[in-house]
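Recall the central idea of this unit: under ordinary conditions, the amino acid sequence of a chain determines the structure it adopts. In this exercise we apply that idea directly, starting from the sequence alone.
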Amino acid sequence: YYDPQARRRFLEREMVEGRIADVGDADVLPTNVVDTFANITALTRKVVERGALPVALGGDHAITYPVVRAFEGEEPFHVVHFDAHIDYMPFVHGLEFTNQHAFRHLRLMPNVRSINQVGIRSIRNTQVMHEDSLRDGNRVVTMEEFRDRPVDSVLDGIPEGARCYISVDIDVLDMSLIPGCVSAEPNGMSYAELRDAMFAVAERTQVIGLDLVEVNPLLDVRTGLTSYLAAHIVVESLGRICDQPWWRHARSERDAAARAGGDA
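Accordingly, the structure predicted from this sequence is:
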């Protein structure tokens, strides 16, 4: 795509050379969350094992856990979580795999070094979830703090060049922008604020994976505004990720290995 502000193209080589591929959907087994999660993890792990960068599209925010679980055994990494909600519900009443539990699971993974939760503002967040997240060493960045320090708050505690996974709940954006989201909240980010924060993560870390969740096309307006906005976020973010020197270097190394092995 061509960015009129930067006056240059992004993702050009990736598109021309067929480096962006749709690997299909993970099989969803209605009423069987455990095996559905296993299918999500298995599909994501195949992508990771090929040396590719997985981009997962939800679905609700429950999918982040089985996606990130595919990185078990990989080198340590940090997580940046954009959301209105903390998604840190305690494991009670037999519930542990809902869209409010994902980041409590991630915190238990030994190779997750830190979790920065950015854009938090909803009165649906309970005191217990907030205090538990802080107690477990996560950084909870409210919208007020984000607006005071829009880049520094997002990357607080994450070393430059560190491996990083990004999870985006579309409701981090203001509710006026996202009619196709059941959990929309007031006082959210503008598109420009989210875009610039995503660009900062792409430029200062090594992004290893990305998900975007909570878009519900059945709730969207007829023009598909929310779906379009979500696609825009993913495409623009990928453009900046694939523009980084580390990505170009890794791509060149993979090309050389493929040529040496006679692989297509």
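The chain has a mean pLDDT of 95.
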